[in-house]
Amino acid sequence: MALLQTNGLTAFYRDFQALFGVDLWLDAGETVAIVGANGAGKSTLMRSVSGVLRNKPEQIVFDGRPIGALAAPEVMALGIAMVPEGRKLFPSLTVEENLLIGRYGRSTNGPWSLETIYQLFPVLKERRNNPGTALSGGQQQMVSIGRALMSNPHVLLCDELSLGLAPVIIKDIYAAFPAIRESGASIVIVEQDIGQAMKVADRLYCMMEGRVTLSGRPMELKREAIHAAYFGADS
Amino acid sequence: MHGPATTWRVETRTKTSTIFMAFGALAVIAGLLAPLYVPRAALQDLFFILTMLVLAQSWNLLAGYAGLVSVGQQAFVGLGAYVMFAGVLLFKLDPLVAILLGGFAAALLAIPAGIFAFRLQGAYFAIGTWVVAEIVRLVVAQWKTLGGGTGTSLPGPATRSMLGIDLAKNLFGFRPAQAVDVICYWVALLLAVATILLVYRLLRSRQGLALASVRDNHEAARAIGVDARRLRAIVYVASAFMTGIVGALIYVQKARISPDAAFSLTDWTAYVIFIVVIGGIGTIEGPIVGVLIFFGLQKLLADFGSIYLLVLGLIGIVVMLFAQEGLWGLFASRTGIQLLPVRRLLRGGSLKN
Amino acid sequence: MNWVDTVLQGILLGGLYALFAAGLSLVFGIMRLVNLAHGDLIVLAAYLIFVLVGTLGLNPFVAMAIAMPIMFAIGWLLQTYVFNRTLGPDILPPLLVTFGLSVVLQNGLLQAYSADSRRIPSGYLETASVRLGSLHVGVMPLLTFASALAVIVILNRLLYATELGRAFRATSDDAVTAGLMGIRPQRTFAIATGIAMAVVAIAALYLGTRSNFDPTIGPARLIYAFESVIMGGLGSLWGTLAGGIVLGVAQTIGGAVNPEWQILAGHIAFVLVLLFRPRGLFPRAVD
């Protein structure tokens, strides 16, 4: 059985329906990428899984447990941590405090601690007493990833890591992913950047207008098929 | 769609509102003649209801439409009343003329008070207005010719020779003291009607739309060229003017003033807030419903002293927590009835069906 | 008139105002909630201590120690069941609900304890004083000021050196993201208001031992507390102390010139500070 699975997931913002029956799964130890254009429903999917948006209980199952209706702190306590879109560091906390707050709701022993995060991103150690928001965009993204890892999650959800960052910095950040995988975490990456996603993912889902339009292993998917699934068949 | 005949029109009236207008006009006429068939005690009750209604409407205009939550309206009641006293006692003005003076003084105070309080955002605006009221109270308490901290009284002859008294005496055969009550009542009725019509017209005008846009979304309103600050300042001064006039009128009738009473937070702001909140904030009908409930409760619980305010406070909390649109709002949303509609309704087209 | 003495008395009075204001400052800093019933809650706590001293014959400081957890519980319950429902983008609901609570508390206390003014007896401390050079300074005012310093140091440590404090600040910055960290914002708020009410119990002890009180004096304390918070700069606890001192000194100087100008002078100082420094004396960099 999959570690994390959605079953016909639907999501609404008031009267507006953003997801129309999304089915996907994540196996233990796997890295899955979800790609799609703006408005495809990727972020809504992340917000649903992480508990920011509430859904029907059985539409999201984690480790055999229906979690669709749980609130964010409860989901987090089960071991699903999120790197939110736009990084969302706490401006009144220092870099180190931002990292420490990551384990507030789930303080378990595991591979990740302040020390190992600083090994993963050495630049953060130098700047640990700066306010989180005084850092460059790339460094902020590192803090945000480190903050999520501090809870030693089973599943790491990464929403739009590369948004607004220069290609060379995106490369730096993705360089950390092999180490994160080795630590045993399963990873969901949401990206608009298909190339980056195909490099790190074991499997790929393409989303458009609130539905999954294509899925498979990166090697097995044709460029044209992805293109069609991403932009629609007509374009 | 029904082809080319599909037309849209913006409506600001409803059938019930037209009927209500006619009914309202009748009620005003009946109200004007009330001194002929209503005992004096009941007339005083009506005076109380009408004056509270004006205070409630002007606070509602501030908080419900302009988003300016003031807890310092007692500054304008008190100053209006004191300036009226000064006009009568020091300048021998007719009380009715002095009432107008009270209104202008309140509006004048609103300018520096506004300049100060508008620097404060949201909740701090509320505290700022309160501090202003405290300052005015403490300064007025230093006004020794008007009795300082203990206050003073209007001499009987001053009110008994007021404008219109002779008319009331000769026309209806009232005794002088009674005639004072009648004149005060008529002025209160006039003010209440004028205030409601004024607020109604303002909210239906372009400025009213702009005001609502300022309340609903500050930034967006500014983006489409609504000068939020200026608009809010105008509303603040206008509501101070109305509040000042009513304050002065209330104290013509009371004929005895002291700083603690005239600048009372409970009497002139707390009551008013509860009236508006319980009735329904952001509607014209709400304060009318609220003032009637308030008066009913007061009659019902008059013998229980502080229990009355306790109950009022609890009702206010419950309404704010569970029915934020107030009792009128609940009624209106269930029935769709609007007696004094200030919204624009889009009618016609395919919605006809 | 001895100016040094007047200013010193004003500074010490500022300590009392800072105590009134510390809880308010904490709660505002964390959840932007403006509690108009804060002054009445101080008076409620003063009655609680008064009753504990009167019926059990306790020392007032012991009574305060008992009142603190009770007030914490009251704050926790109020936040959980009342205030949390009012938090949102619209400022009207919290203002009106706390205003309603203020009226309820005042009249409830009037009903229970009448309008008679009371005082918490504190024995020889009431009149005890110490010599500082040529000045005599009351022990109670000194204790008040020391308590204010202690409260502010402890609250600052709590905010900046504990896990709970990190959670407070994170929730204040961004409640949704705080939820992703496992923080339950509403629970965090309940604890914060509980702590604010425990501080209120300390303020109440000094309110009740230093002067008479009755059920109606809450709103005036609320104004002093607010003036201290706003003058100091929102969200800064040391700023709140500075604001309290400015208010206290303005009042004692005004009062020394003419006793009737005491309170007026405080309000005018508040208006002046805000005209020249709209964000207060020590505004927080991040807001």
Walk me through the structure.
- The complex is a heterotrimer of chains A (235), B (353) and C (287).
- Chain A has one domain (4-231): Rossmann fold (3-Layer(aba) Sandwich), CATH 3.40.50.
- In chain A, 33% of the residues lie in helices and 25% in strands.
- Chain A is built from 10 helices and 10 strands.
- Chain A has helices at 42-50, 72-78, 95-101, 114-120, 122-126, 137-149, 167-174, 177-182, 194-200, 223-231; strands at residues 4-13, 16-26, 31-36, 60-62, 65-66, 80-83, 155-159, 186-191, 203-208, 211-216.
- Chain A is globular, with a radius of gyration of 17 Å.
- Chain B has helices at residues 15-32, 34-37, 40-65, 74-91, 95-117, 122-140, 156-160, 165-172, 176-204, 206-216, 218-223, 228-254, 259-262, 265-279, 285-301, 306-322, 326-335; strands spanning 8-11, 152-153, 256-257, 345-348.
- In chain B, α14 crosses α15 (285-301).
- Chain C is an all-alpha fold.
- Chain C has one domain (3-106, 139-276).
- Helices cover 75% and strands 3% of the residues of chain C.
- Chain C has helices spanning 3-31, 38-56, 60-86, 92-113, 139-161, 163-173, 175-180, 185-210, 218-232, 237-257, 262-276; strands spanning 129-132, 135-138.
- In chain C, strands 1-2 form a two-stranded antiparallel sheet.
- In chain C, α3 runs antiparallel to α8.
- Chain C starts with a helix and ends in an 11-residue tail after the last helix.
- Chains in contact: A-C, B-C.
Secondary-structure blueprint:
The complex is a heterotrimer of chains A (235), B (353) and C (287).
Chain A: E1 4-13, E2 16-26, E3 31-36, H1 42-50, E4 60-62, E5 65-66, H2 72-78, E6 80-83, H3 95-101, H4 114-120, H5 122-126, H6 137-149, E7 155-159, H7 167-174, H8 177-182, E8 186-191, H9 194-200, E9 203-208, E10 211-216, H10 223-231
Parallel strand pairs in A: 3-8, 3-9, 6-7, 7-8
Antiparallel strand pairs in A: 1-2, 1-4, 4-5, 9-10
Chain B: E1 8-11, H1 15-32, H2 34-37, H3 40-65, H4 74-91, H5 95-117, H6 122-140, E2 152-153, H7 156-160, H8 165-172, H9 176-204, H10 206-216, H11 218-223, H12 228-254, E3 256-257, H13 259-262, H14 265-279, H15 285-301, H16 306-322, H17 326-335, E4 345-348
Antiparallel strand pairs in B: 1-4, 2-3
Helix pairs in contact in B: 3-9, 3-12, 3-14, 3-15, 4-5, 4-6, 4-12, 5-6, 5-12, 8-9, 9-10, 9-12, 14-15, 14-17, 15-17
Chain C: H1 3-31, H2 38-56, H3 60-86, H4 92-113, E1 129-132, E2 135-138, H5 139-161, H6 163-173, H7 175-180, H8 185-210, H9 218-232, H10 237-257, H11 262-276
Antiparallel strand pairs in C: 1-2
Helix pairs in contact in C: 1-5, 1-8, 1-9, 1-10, 2-3, 2-4, 2-8, 2-9, 3-8, 5-6, 5-8, 6-8, 9-10, 9-11, 10-11
